[in-house]
Amino acid sequence: xxxxxxxxxxxxxxxxxxxxxxxxxxxxxxxxxxxxxxxxxxxxxxxxxxxxxxxxxxxxxxxxxxxxxxxxxxxxxxxxxxxxxxxxxxxxxxxxxxxxxxxxxxxxxxxxxxxxxxxxxxxxxxxxxxxxxxxxxxxxxxxxxxxxxxxxxxxxxxxxxxxxxxxxxxxxxxxxxxxxxxxxxxxxxxxxxxxxxxxxxxxxxxxxxxxxxxxxxxxxxxxxxxxxxxxxxxxxxxxxxxxxxxxxxxxxxxxxxxxxxxxxxxxxxxxxxx
Length: 274
Ligand code: KIV
Prior knowledge:
Helices cover about 40% and strands about 15% of the residues. By secondary structure, the chain is α/β, with parallel strands linked by helices. The protein has a single domain, classed as TIM Barrel. Strands 1-2-3-4-5-6-7-8 form an eight-stranded parallel beta barrel, surrounded by five helices. α6 packs parallel to α8 (about 165-180). The longest helix is centred in the C-terminal third of the chain and has 17 residues, at about 240-255. The mean pLDDT is about 95. The protein binds 3-methyl-2-oxobutanoic acid (KIV). 3-methyl-2-oxobutanoic acid binds next to loops. 3-methyl-2-oxobutanoic acid (KIV) binds near residues 88 and 207.
């Protein structure tokens, strides 16, 4: 299978150049059909490690492996024509040191054809980001609520309140100075997201971080309303696919039980009546 990038794709320098411009449109995708749907509308498509929770039913992103990211990355690659594809480095595959991060990132790029990777962490990851960027690996950073650190953070809480704001500001400056081409700000209080966006030279991409950011990202299944009971405050639902799918499946089940499906128009030959 070819994993070559297609011509015309958005590049990391183009994303960087959008700082302060028209907001960057970003969504996650994990499969070929979803990648085909989002590609015409997005600047960036992220194969996020949220795939573990959204598609595999894991309780957190901690159980996601490099092999899972490669399989989903290859599927998404087949569905993209123009958006920049970014793949998450999963937990435990990069925090051990910059050489480990390089090996994982190079493997993900070679095996999926993605043009950039994303990793979680601020000041503590600056040296790794500098190392990767200097070796031709475009890095999207991710600070604020970093789901891979959910245990250390004590849950999926809003970040940057009170004194914590200065720590996150330092994280933002550190990843920008280390050479990240963009940074995801997750679940940050709005004024801090605005301060960070005004204070660093790379685009900020918000998820639950207010309209002040240079772009926005959501998990596709969340904005499509796939999960009826999952309603985080920062998600606007643009569809109710979970509800609509439930209604459709119930209708199918009823029609099968009542022998109303398949109809004569779905059958071959004489219609196959009993
Ligand atoms: O894994 C993911 O989907 C992410 C986004 C929510 C930013 O990191």
